[in-house]
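(Deposited chain)
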Amino acid sequence: MSYRYSKKDKLKSKKLIEQLFTKGKAITVFPLRLVYLKTTFDDGSILKTGVSVSKRLHKSAVDRNQIKRLMREAYRLNKPKYFNTNTTTFAFMILYISKDKITFLELDSKMKMLFERFLKNTAKDETISK
């Protein structure tokens, strides 16, 4: 898995996003929340990911866009480390749920904690379903 965050890796389908929020499971590592759903994709992607920052918490579009850029970069850098051996397909939505701004180093460490918790939860779910 490469370090790229290409167009086919981005979550854009409105139907899939609605399904994600109705049927998906969530993990929170403050200030991040990961909503995920096990699914299949037509284009052969393993992961499709979207990022979101609340307009209610961050009024300024400049602030929202900066946080989204930092989140995408942290995701892009950590994706190969955590999902390189993953064969199950997932749809992700990563939400920023804090009112405060954050530095890249803090966001990166929280993203790593979030992915570790996700892998632990999905491994536990797979052993329960077997």
In short: Residues 119 and 125 are 10 Å apart (CA to CA).
